């Protein structure tokens, strides 16, 4: 059994030392954690999918880095993989907050029960909305994801923290009408910040997703119609 008193044992897959993109409006670093339960065909980080056991020394190295960035960085973003699959994530978040950093989280909402324990310690969340009720299980390769997503979204909307929902659109998974229905559903739920991301065909988990799109990227035109529904709607 891991001695959490010596620090959280997390499988750190990588560290981006400085970013202005992963936490809107803040200078942040990103800590990537290994392991994801989903199998999205367009995934461009397939090397982060296989799980492994974390070691205390991995988080200690991150903390050593954070000590050198006090007063320079404003926030730490935990990403993956799916960071909420790791039971020691809460302890790592708390230790980063003790050092004065704001906390951001990238998640697909796959573990709503664990997310509920994290929310009081979060400042911003980027929620990956993989698809609507009719598509999400097929897109992610895992069952019951709609229920998990809805539970996580409801918790985040009820919390007093900044939230951005975003959807990665690959032509094999969506048509324009399906994206619009999903966006309108999110707006009706109360989501105010939304991002649409056109999937990149390079380095996808599934070879069939690496084929170039036979259609032009429809997202810029779609965003013009949907923008009035949100405070912000960006296309990436």
TrEMBL record:
<dbReference type="GO" id="GO:0003824">
    <property type="term" value="F:catalytic activity"/>
</dbReference>
<dbReference type="GO" id="GO:0051539">
    <property type="term" value="F:4 iron, 4 sulfur cluster binding"/>
</dbReference>
<dbReference type="InterPro" id="IPR058240">
    <property type="entry name" value="rSAM_sf"/>
</dbReference>
<dbReference type="InterPro" id="IPR013785">
    <property type="entry name" value="Aldolase_TIM"/>
</dbReference>
<keyword id="KW-0479">Metal-binding</keyword>
<dbReference type="InterPro" id="IPR012840">
    <property type="entry name" value="NrdG2"/>
</dbReference>
<keyword id="KW-0004">4Fe-4S</keyword>
<feature type="domain" description="Radical SAM core">
    <location>
        <begin position="22"/>
        <end position="229"/>
    </location>
</feature>
<dbReference type="Pfam" id="PF04055">
    <property type="entry name" value="Radical_SAM"/>
</dbReference>
<dbReference type="GO" id="GO:0046872">
    <property type="term" value="F:metal ion binding"/>
</dbReference>
<dbReference type="InterPro" id="IPR034457">
    <property type="entry name" value="Organic_radical-activating"/>
</dbReference>
<protein>
    <submittedName>
        <fullName>Ribonucleoside-triphosphate reductase, anaerobic-like protein</fullName>
    </submittedName>
</protein>
<keyword id="KW-0949">S-adenosyl-L-methionine</keyword>
<dbReference type="InterPro" id="IPR007197">
    <property type="entry name" value="rSAM"/>
</dbReference>
<keyword id="KW-0408">Iron</keyword>
<keyword id="KW-0411">Iron-sulfur</keyword>
């Amino acid at each position: 059994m891991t001695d959490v008193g010596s620090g959280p044992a997390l499988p750190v897959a990588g560290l981006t030392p400085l970013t202005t993109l992963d936490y809107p409006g803040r200078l942040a670093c990103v800590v990537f954690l290994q392991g994801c339960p989903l199998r999205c065909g367009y995934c461009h980080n397939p090397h982060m999918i296989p799980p492994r056991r974390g070691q205390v020394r991995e988080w200690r190295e991150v903390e050593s880095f954070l000590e050198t960035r006090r007063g320079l960085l404003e926030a730490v973003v935990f990403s993956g993989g799916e960071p909420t699959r790791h039971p020691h994530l809460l302890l790592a978040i708390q230790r980063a907050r003790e050092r004065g950093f704001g906390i951001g989280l990238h998640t697909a909402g796959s573990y709503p029960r664990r997310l509920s324990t994290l929310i009081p310690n979060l400042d911003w969340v980027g929620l990956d909305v993989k698809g609507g009720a009719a598509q999400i299980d097929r897109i992610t390769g895992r069952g019951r994801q709609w229920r998990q997503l809805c539970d996580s979204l409801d918790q985040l909307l009820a919390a007093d923290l900044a939230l951005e929902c975003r959807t990665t659109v690959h032509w094999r998974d969506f048509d324009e009408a399906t994206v619009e229905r999903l966006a309108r559903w999110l707006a009706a739920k109360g989501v105010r910040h939304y991002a649409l991301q056109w999937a990149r065909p390079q380095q996808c988990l599934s070879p069939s997703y690496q084929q170039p799109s036979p259609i032009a990227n429809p997202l810029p035109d779609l965003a013009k119609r949907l923008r009035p529904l949100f405070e912000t709607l960006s296309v990436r």
